[in-house]
Design a protein that fits this description.
Blueprint (H helix, E strand, L loop, with lengths): L2 H16 L1 H12 L11 H13 L3 E8 L2 E7 L9
Antiparallel strand pairs: 1-2
Length: 84
């Protein structure tokens, strides 16, 4: 693996470790929401995620192809390259 990839990997792990408590707390809160399928109603969890994104200054778009089936697409960075 190249040095750049190794450095990127180290930076990523350091950032994860720095935010470990926040990540664990967020995961705990997310799994408390009923979102199983069926019925697949994602309204409550989508609203929670929208609030989280708003609090953290992250823009997003919301798509609801069917009632209760909500897709959120967060926009992070400069959008110069495709990301996942």
């Amino acid at each position: 693996m190249s040095t750049i990839n190794q450095d990127l990997k180290k930076d990523l792990w350091r950032k994860i470790e720095d935010q470990r408590r926040e990540i664990i707390q967020l995961a705990k809160e997310l799994i408390e929401f009923p979102s199983e399928n069926p019925p697949g109603d994602m309204t409550e969890i989508a609203n929670f995620i929208k609030e989280y994104l708003n609090r953290n200054g992250i823009s997003y778009t919301s798509h609801e192809p069917e009632k209760g089936k909500i897709n959120l697409i967060a926009h992070i960075g400069n959008n110069s390259e495709p990301t996942l």
